[in-house]
Amino acid sequence: MKVIEIKDLVKIYNESEVKVHAVNGITLDFEQGEFAAIVGPSGSGKTTLLNMIGGLDDPTSGEVLVDGTAMSNLKGSDLTDFRLNNIGFVFQSYNLIPVLTAKENTEFVMRLQGKNSKECDARTEELLKSVGLGERMNARPAKLSGGQQQRVAVARALASKPKFVLADEPTANLDSKSTETLLDIMEKLNREENITFVFSTHDARVVNKARRVITVEDGKVISDERKNGGE
Fold it and tell me: Taking every annotated instance into account, which residue ranges of this chain make up the domain ABC transporter (predicted)?
């Protein structure tokens, strides 16, 4: 089943009266349960593409359908609600709320969804244990390492049981051990909960784990390869 459909997507930025095609006519589909990496040099359009898939940026032309819904048709609170209930985001900069504990950061999205405390507590405890932070639930971000903060960010992205997770350079600030741990966690959750993961990355370790590798250059897809049993 297709959870993401991208149709002739274009994003043009005007920089000093020069038009820059950050994304230039990309057409792609992602099936439920994929574990895919979008790779390419800096400036190739990876992050812009991810942002348009997630509704964080509007395309100049073309269309993104998420679970059959055209993202361009969603505005304001409708877009916010759709993202809240369907999409998990993992950012390179973690984007944790400094005054909240790991537990409070993880359950934040569920609280916005109106879930009750019992459900929030159970899901949060399950996820933080799964990412190896069961004993650090009450620690604030400043007391956690970069790898631990990114694991909290992954737990937060998964807390609402989204259909898919968009991860923008999630391992860029992590050492080798933290990267390996994080990728193992995401792969396990991908297989067990059938959550679709789409990464933008420069990291060969992420590419090696991915079952599909999409290469973009100058805003265009130049190759799309499936491996390791990918459909």
Answer: 4-229
